[in-house]
Design brief:
Elements (H helix, E strand, L loop, with lengths): L2 H18 L6 H22 L10 H25 L4 H8 L7
Length: 102
């Protein structure tokens, strides 16, 4: 799936969620929401790695929760980039893929 199309779909879902719960999605919200999701990712990783309470979850549930939190961080990153009109594919090419041929 192309990132631009994916970003558009994620934006529609995020916007609908915000409207349903009367959340103002301003620049601060996008950044803090990303931080919140990173915190949840860390928590799920610690549980998966046996460095935090597992809260009665099975290994499969812990793995699934970790994967979902990675997706949340990815989606919030796309939303933040979209808000700031960042062509994430181009920036990744310049910042990361540059090293492929270096």
């Amino acid at each position: 799936m192309e990132l631009k199309h994916l970003s558009e779909e994620i934006e529609a879902i995020s916007k609908g969620y915000a409207e349903k719960y009367a959340i103002e999605r301003d620049a601060t919200w996008f950044l803090l929401k990303l931080q919140e999701e990173v915190g949840e990712l860390i928590q799920s990783y610690l549980m998966l790695a046996g460095k935090a309470r597992k809260k009665g979850k099975t290994p499969e549930e812990l793995q699934a929760a970790f994967e979902e939190e990675v997706a949340d961080v990815f989606c919030q990153t796309l939303l933040l980039a979209r808000l700031h009109h960042i062509d994430i594919e181009e920036v990744v090419k310049k910042k990361w893929l540059y090293w492929k041929n270096a």
